[in-house]
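Each letter names a residue; the fold follows as tokens. Both lines appear below:
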Amino acid sequence: MKRSVYTHVRARVSLAIALRTATANGTSVDRKLSGASGTNEWYQSAALIVHAGTITDGTHAITLQVSDDNATWGAAPAADLQGSLPSIVAADDDKLYEVGYIGNARYLRAVTTVSGTTTGGIYGAVILLGFPNVLPISRT
């Protein structure tokens, strides 16, 4: 089988693209998924991808939170991050940010902490999962 991103990588929305004027927790993303054939896919690596649209005011600090039980959340340790978590401001229209995660937590989510906004900004965040233990990955 030819190697391709489609058969090796999965993307999951954590923060839906929206106009944001307030702090919000993203949807959790599980790094262990059940495939169609009954296999359990475990993704060894992940990345947080943030796409900023139009930012009119305020500061929108994006963090990555991790959890082992999908209930108790904490900030991803700096030692487990590759790159820098962004703080998006009005000068950051239409920018893309990528932050790698090399830790072992099962659940991940993006969080935005917003300050100084009246009209806010449009952006979203995706968790990209890679290096699965089962190939090719199931698309069901």
